What does this fold into?
Amino acid sequence: MRVLVVEDEQAMVEALTWGLEAEGYVVDVATNGEDGLWKAVETSPAVIILDVMLPVLDGYQVCRRLRAQGVWTPVLMLTAMDDDLDMAEGLDTGADDYLAKPFAYPVLLARLRALTRRGLGVRPAVLTAAGLTLDPAARTASRDGVPLDLTSREVSVLQHLMLHKGQVVSKTELLEHCWDPAYEGGPAVVEVLIHRLRRKIDPPEGRPAIQTMRGEGYRLGDGHEI
Ligand code: CA
It folds into this structure.
C-alpha cells in the first residue's frame, strides 16, 4: 500500500519512512506543499500523511486544493499545534483525521489503518444551487436533471462557486483553488472559462446562474433572488 508523507523535518521524514516501510507500506516523500500536491495526484497514494507547517504551501492549502481538484484520498493531518481551533480548521479543509505532534507511533498506525479501511476519503455531499446539481466525487453536473458536458476545470470552478453560493468569489481565488499552483496565467483565463461555463450551464432563457460583480469577481445565485 502506497503512502505519501508530506513533511519538511528531516528527522520526522526518516522516522516515518523507516517505520512505515517496516509495516509494508511503500513510502513517497515530499518536503514542501507544492511538491506534495503534485505527488498526491501523480503517485495515487492510498493515504496521505500531511504536515501542517510546510514550505511553499501549508498543509491546509494543500488539502483544500486537493479536494478542489476532486482528489479524495484520505488525509491524516499532522500538527504541532494542539488546540480545537486548528483541528476544526484541518477538518474544514477536507482532512479526514488529525494527529497532534508528538504522537505515539502505534496511534499513527492505527489511524492509518482506519483511514485505509474506510477506503476512499469522506466524500462530499452533492451540491445544489440555481437549478444546478454537482456531485464533487463523481465530477458530474446537471441542470434541471439534464447532464452537463463539463471539463474537469469547469467542474472545479463551478464547484468552488457552488460551495460559496451567494458570495462573491474573486478571480484570484478561483485561480488559486482551481488551477495548478505552478500555473502563471492571469485573471483573463478565468474570464474565458466563466464565459464557456455560462454557455454550457445557462438555459437559453432566464437568469444566468453566475453573475459578474464588476471589479470584484463572480457570484453564483441561489435562483431565488431578483
Ligand atoms: Ca513541518
Remarks:
- Residues 188-201 form the longest helix (14 residues).
- The mean pLDDT is 85.
- The chain is about 40% helix and 20% strand.
- Helices lie at 10-22, 33-42, 59-68, 84-92, 105-117, 152-163, 171-178, 188-201.
